[in-house]
Amino acid sequence: MQLAKVVGNLVSTHKNELIKGKKLLFVQPVDEFFKPFGNEMLAVDGVGAGIGDIVIILSEGGSARMITNAKSKIAPIELCVAGIVDSVKTEKDYIFIE
Question: Could you tell me which residues come within 8 angstroms of residue 44 by beta carbon, excluding any fewer than 6 positions away?
Fold first, then answer.
């Protein structure tokens, strides 16, 4: 699991039957101070996140399929949005998400 920021939506008129009806989001990984790092990735939304939300992403296929209520155990889901972050508490600081 890691933190990410939702930076965009992807609209697809044709997609695998097993993920029809699932929202696809572009997410940018962030560190604990919400600074971006790495490349943007495409994730299946499992919680109703939107652009600008700080989210928890999960990159384990079986768990990702469970969180998104995939129709099949073989649905092509590798990365999903598993939660929307409200706040973060570290040893040094407590950060609220606006």
Answer: 19, 22, 23, 24, 25, 64, 68, 77, 79, 80, 81
* Total-model pTM: 0.84
Backbone angles phi, psi at 74, to 5 degrees: -110, 15
Q: Mean pLDDT of successive 10-residue segments in the chain (98 residues)? A: 95 80 92 90 92 92 68 74 87 71
DSSP 39-82: --EEEEESS---TT-EEEEE--HHHHHHHTT-SSTT-----EEE
CATH homologous superfamily of 2-96: EutN/Ccml (2.40.50.220)
